[in-house]
Design a protein that fits this description.
Keywords: Membrane, Transmembrane, Transmembrane helix. With 286 residues, the chain is of the alpha+beta class. Among the domains are: 73 residues, lambda repressor-like DNA-binding domains (434 Repressor (Amino-terminal Domain), Orthogonal Bundle); 107 residues, no CATH class. Helix content is 32%, strand content 20%. The N and C termini lie far apart (157 Å).
């Protein structure tokens, strides 16, 4: 009779432990545990593993394995294991899980990152839109429009203040005399400024637009002589009375769209500059 196996089995049953539970505790395959209870040691790798399995079994059911082996030595197998024995296969787990990354898992990791990147780009685009809108709003007070010229800027060297001219007292005889014909002469060009001199009575400047262009006209006191400095559109005309000024400075954005005439005489452009200044100095008629 297999008294060792019977003792171990009785202890297991007394503790209400199944062979499956014992297998999980000791990590010894169920068939080896059943072989110990039945005294069938031939299926085991060798005497060393039989003794080791018995001790593990005994410890799991609260028995002294070494004492049991000394008490029942005849139940040990006589055959020694061969030099090359097969390593016993102990129970490790009932199933092996293999982790594989499914395509859906890859998408679930990549898509949130893509969405976050798109959200950041959208925020930057909205911020740039409002920044650009605020910049354009701040510059809307500038009278210049794209492609229509530049606003008036007074260069330091282009206009010089002229000294006060002595007022010539006119006699009744001189007043009655016939006024000389008006004379318009181009004096010089410097940079983007062309200077003319005009001699004649009651000068009147006509500014006619054939297309859009920014126009401003100021006198020696830097006072605007137009209704306002602005962009003239095609068909618009401004007439300025210059009888009370010493000179006039006209700032033109696009000269090709603006026709100037002084007392009916057309002022020819001496240069093709965009923008450019036309300065007219008025001389007292002799």
């Amino acid at each position: 009779m297999n008294e060792l196996g019977t003792r171990l089995k009785e202890a297991r049953i007394a503790k209400k432990i199944s062979l499956e539970d014992l297998q999980d505790v000791t990590k010894i395959q169920k068939r080896y545990l059943a072989g110990i209870e039945e005294g069938e040691y031939s299926t085991m790798p060798g005497a060393f593993y039989v003794r080791a399995f018995i001790k593990q079994y005994a410890a799991a059911v609260d028995l002294d394995g070494e004492a049991l082996l000394q008490q029942y030595p005849i139940e040990m197998p006589v055959k020694e294991p061969h030099a090359h024995t097969t390593t016993p296969t102990t129970y490790t787990s009932r199933s092996r899980s293999i982790t594989r990354t499914a395509p859906s898992d890859v998408y679930s990791e990549v898509i949130p990152k893509v969405l976050v990147a798109l959200f950041i780009v959208l925020i930057l685009a909205v911020a740039w839109y409002f920044y650009d809108a605020s910049t354009n709003g701040a510059s809307s007070s500038d009278p210049i429009e794209k492609g229509l010229g530049v606003p008036y800027e007074e260069p330091a060297s282009s206009v010089q203040e002229k000294p006060d001219k002595p007022v010539k007292e006119e006699t009744p005889k001189e007043t009655e005399e016939k006024q000389p014909d008006p004379i318009l002469i181009m004096e010089e060009t410097q940079g983007e400024t062309t200077t003319y001199s005009f001699q004649g009575a009651n000068p009147e400047l006509e500014i006619a637009a054939s297309g859009p262009s920014w126009v401003a006209a100021t006198d020696e006191n830097l006072q605007e002589r137009l209704s306002k400095a602005h962009v003239l559109q095609a068909g618009e005309t401004e007439i300025i009375d210059l009888s009370d000024v010493e000179f006039i400075r006209v700032r033109i954005g696009d000269y090709s769209n603006i026709n100037l005439s002084l007392n009916g005489e057309t002022i020819e452009y001496a240069q093709q500059t965009k923008p450019q200044n036309i300065v007219i100095q008025f001389k007292v008629s002799e």
